[in-house]
Amino acid sequence: MPAAILSNGVTKFTNCVLVKGNDLVKEDLWISSVTGKILNGQDLLYGQRIAPDNIIDLGGRILSPGLIDVQLNGAYGFDFSVIPEEGTTTYGKGVVSVNKNLVQTGVTSYLPTLTSQKPEVYQKALPYLGPSGAPRNASSGSESLGAHVEGPFISPTKNGIHNTSVLQTPQNGLPDLATCYGPSNLTTSSPIKLLTLAPELPGALSSISSLNELGIMTSIGHSEATYEQAQLALFSGATMITHLFNAMNPLHHRNPGIFGLLGSPPSPSSPPKPYFGLIADGIHLHPTTIKIAWNAHPTGLILVTDAMRLAGMPDGVYEWTNGSRIVKKGALLTLEENGKIAGSSITLIECVNNFMNWTGATVPEALKAVTETPARMLGVESVKGNLKEGADADLVVLDLVGGEEAKNLAVDQVWKFGEMVFEKGGDRA
Ligand SMILES: [Zn+2]
């Protein structure tokens, strides 16, 4: 009886530690480049007597699910919120280029994010930003799980760097949203996966319910909401807070504000605590603030980059949208006209490293904030963010360097749909 079938597309990783929940487990992992999925190694070996085509000895390194960034405004010189003068064909090529570059940082899926813009920008951009879906092609790079639209239904007093001249109020609920984003972009097969809005605006709560019915998730952000208003948003179906602490009122002992949602629900009939994004770049938040949020609600914490197109570019002054300009000085990005923080230029694995070192989180706990937790928030945990049989074989090989003082994970390899798409020092891209 033949023990092996040739060219079956099966790869076995061995001599590695797998990220499983809050643990690192020494175990092999089997994947298929044919289905792009994680396989049941025991069944293949003993049940079907299939031997892998390819055995990869990881020399004790960590094998993690691919990272997920739910807030990325652009990178590598490309901004999702800017339609080039040449038109949408050039825009589409820009998206393809970001995807191919982004995957090399270990981010195998993400939500391309649009800031507050005029309606025409959403209507032109959104058709390019929806879920990548079929065909599942490893060489396409990082995969969109749908767009994140941040604004323009946000508070003019918590606009951050969003231009107030384009902000709107969802007075009439869903019809106003449809006029803004385009009716074809607000259906049950919408390219939008997540929508950040300010729940205290007139019409916002009914908008949240309507979006829920379409399968579009909502997140509270750029908002002056009180604790009570933020709670109403959860009752209406909001499930997340966008970049917690930034662009919202701080905790006040008599008015805990949006942050108060991380406290215990006041009664069993209350909605669950929301997920929350945090920018762990050392600029947006103090390390202790991050630790407090993590202690308050560890299973809701999602690390996001909020990175914009200047990530990886030299220092200087750059044109931004709506006539504004951004000053880049190292990792610090500020709006020239008022000095406000203007997104970040950090990578997601750097956020993970900061988070580990600032909070004392273990490697699997920190990785959970960029894998399992965002996958759960997005409702895609059966295929993303874990190493269970049947999940997509989107993987990152990580090397843990440094001692107790400063631990750092470095991305050594990235696999997408069962194929290697990046190797540090290698020529794959
Ligand atoms: Zn923002």
TrEMBL record:
The keyword Nucleotide-binding does not apply. Binds 1 divalent metal cation per subunit. Coiled coil: none annotated. Zn(2+) binds at E150, H222, H243. InterPro entries: Amidohydro-rel (IPR006680), GlcNAc_6-P_deAcase (IPR003764), Metal-dep_hydrolase_composite (IPR011059), Metal_Hydrolase (IPR032466). Its EC number is 3.5.1.25. One of its GO terms (biological process) is N-acetylglucosamine catabolic process. It catalyses: N-acetyl-D-glucosamine 6-phosphate + H2O = D-glucosamine 6-phosphate + acetate. Residues 62-419 form the Amidohydrolase-related domain. Its cofactor is a divalent metal cation. Gene3D superfamilies: Metal-dependent hydrolases. GO terms for molecular function: metal ion binding; N-acetylglucosamine-6-phosphate deacetylase activity. Keywords: Carbohydrate metabolism, Hydrolase, Metal-binding. The active site is at D306 (proton donor/acceptor). Substrate binds at I161, N246, A247, R254, H284, I341, A342, G343. Pfam families: Amidohydro_1. Belongs to the metallo-dependent hydrolases superfamily. NagA family. This is N-acetylglucosamine-6-phosphate deacetylase. The lineage of its organism: Eukaryota, Fungi, Dikarya, Ascomycota, Pezizomycotina.
